Amino acid sequence: MKRMNKVILGVAIAAFAFAAVAADGQKTVTMWTFLDPAKAGGRDEALAKIIAAFKLKNPTIDVKVEPQVWTTLAEKFVLGHGAGNAPDIGWVNAENLGLVLNSDASADLGPLITQRWDAGRRDDMVSPQALEAVTVKSKVKALPIMAITWVMMYRKDLFDKAGLTVADISTWDGVTRAAKLLTKDNNGDGKIDVYGIGLGLAQERFSATPALFASVQDNGGLFKAGCTPLLDTKATADAIKMQADWITDAKVVPREALAMTSDDAIEQFTAGKYAMQIIANSRFERIQKEAVGWDAAKLGIAPIPSTVKGKVGPHLLTGWFAAVSESSKNKPEAAKFVDFMTNSDSAKLWTVMGGQVPMMKSVAVQPEMQTPATSNLKQVAELMKETGSYMPGACNWSRTLADFNLATQKVVLGKADATGAAKEMQKATADRQDVQR
């Protein structure tokens, strides 16, 4: 009996020792992103599945997601690196890549990931320029997760009722004319029920508005060599005035837009308050799910309007990238998850479940992509192919989007004219390029 007890005790001690070793070998990788895998929603649920699939293949690596406000992710990542409390992985949007590429906050993912890819993985990328945008002096500072562009979303039902087609909003002048027809007081109480176009012009949680695209098209870009802004121009002043006039003269945008964030404006569009609005294509799936008071099947996508008749407006490419912190104590594990999160299996989840444009050629030919439900993704992919382009990765242009908002505010409130507002934008954006260096 004593011998049996000793054997049992020996087995228990060995099991405890094994468990201790396993526990010691467990690594937890922290990741900052705007997504929350605990929530319902296309991209949130896609991330949850990606993490679960990774965990099955890598049981000793946990991935802890710490959701953040999307507009400050890159800035917090860089500041966290300086303060010594950065996550292992940080998501960065294209507008803020300059903050990361011009700092030492992110690790070189070449030796950790891309140099280990076979030719098939590299050739499967739909947009190799996304990887080129984050490569600095042969160092790969991040990996692209998803590609996004802005489009004109519109209500097909309201367009049909007004006798309008997509061709009518192919130019910004056409947008103004259409917006006047679409702005309606439906019940005759003297209050507008539906405005022709939606804008979010706040200084926080901001996104691209029409003036940006009109300015970029006529100026030939947002920057010239050396990240020198192209904003102190007549084209930019005209673009700012166009937005201000929609509020003050045409009255096709509510004055309340001056204080609305981009998220506020999207919520208003989803609630049926606007007939059309410039919105990132990544929001299409959520708007359809949450539409109130109108048939979500009537949500349409049109190209970015042009300043020139017969041409398509610019489709500026943005999206999300994953960077591994240079100060991470779990670089190999973090890089392993970033590689997994961007492989073809994960790309399929981002596309089919998350409603994102395919990042891999192998995903684009999947049966799931040949259905009417994914027609909007095909349409966006064609727009990206036709007039899509990335900004220079080293140039910081995120707050420039807020500059367009501030300039519009000032003109509406009579605090500046459009020419003066454009000059202020030029200086503000130029100063940011100097600061980030």
Question: Can you tell me about this structure?
Answer:
The chain has 437 residues and is of the alpha/beta class. It is 46% helix and 16% strand. It contains 19 helices and 13 strands. The strands form 3 sheets. Strands 1, 2, 3, 6, 7, 10, 11, 12 and 13 form a 9-stranded mixed sheet that branches. The chain has a two-stranded antiparallel sheet with strand order 4-5. The protein has a two-stranded antiparallel ribbon with strand order 8-9. Strand 8 (223-224) and strand 9 form a beta hairpin.
Short recap of the structure:
With 437 residues, the protein is of the alpha/beta class.
Overall morphology: globular
Proportion of residues in extended strands: 15-25%
Tell me the helix content.
Answer: 40-55%
SSE class: alpha/beta
Report how far the terminal alpha carbons are from each other. 75 Å
Number of DSSP helices? Answer: 19
Main sheet record: 9 strands, mixed
Number of strands: 13
Rounded radius of gyration (Å): 24 Å
> Which spans of ≥5 residues are poorly predicted at pLDDT below 50?
1-22
Give the mean pLDDT.
90
Defining key terms:
single chain, 437 residues, alpha/beta, 9-stranded mixed sheet, two-stranded antiparallel sheet, 13 strands, 46% helix, disordered N terminus
